[in-house]
Design goal:
The protein has a single domain, classed as Rossmann fold (3-Layer(aba) Sandwich). 36% of the residues lie in helices and 18% in strands. The protein contains eleven helices and nine strands. Strand 8, helix 8 and strand 9 form a beta-alpha-beta unit. The radius of gyration is 17 Å and the shape is globular.
Amino acid sequence: MSEETTIVLVHGALADASSFAGVIRELETAGRTVIAPPNPLRGLLSDAESIATRVTAIEGPVVLVGHSYAGAVIGQASAGLANVKALVFLAGVSLDVGESCASVQAPFPPTLLVKTSYLTDYDAPGAAGGPDLYLASDKYRETLCADAPADLARVMSVTQRPLAGAALGEAATAAGWKAIPSWYLISEQDNGIAPETQRFMAERMTATTETIRGSHAAFIAQPRKVAQFIQKAAGVPGTPHEGPLHHLLHRTGT
């Protein structure tokens, strides 16, 4: 990429953009321009519209990075955005058209997250309807970031941002990964999204795939490794219209 590439980090549910602090530090030390916008967590399509609006305003090429639920958001948001050159999924949900975050995971083993999350008895503010989803504070670290320092995990549990429960059942209407080269980092010790689910989604995208021995939010404990993975996506040439075939050829060195 001849122009300066902006790396856009999109956080998932039950957290906020500050969870990327270590990765941001590593990327900026490497001379990268980084933006970590807030993900509203109110619904897949509206969240994607919010991120797409922010990305559209960026001059030059963009690498979109999504963690967990945000994988679904960047997959939806990136469709048709000419400046998005690569997608990076960090233990992220990748949806095909018509799928939801719930349906794509249904055939695979349930994770600890199913047992440790709960729905509120009030409707999610700003969402189409239905309750908010939270994670039990005493199970937060074990479920999402078991390899993070205990004091940091505690702060994250107290400040967690809920996801509108209805977002998990909202179907994707676009799949940007079908036209944009994709990278996937599988978390091998994930209690949030089953590694089997992650492998399925990565293989379906013909994504350049690596694994990391870490939790669902492995980027907190291992920011340098994750930043290096993102850098690989940021350094690969290509246009968003070359699609999976170009990406597969790049992987095999053809």
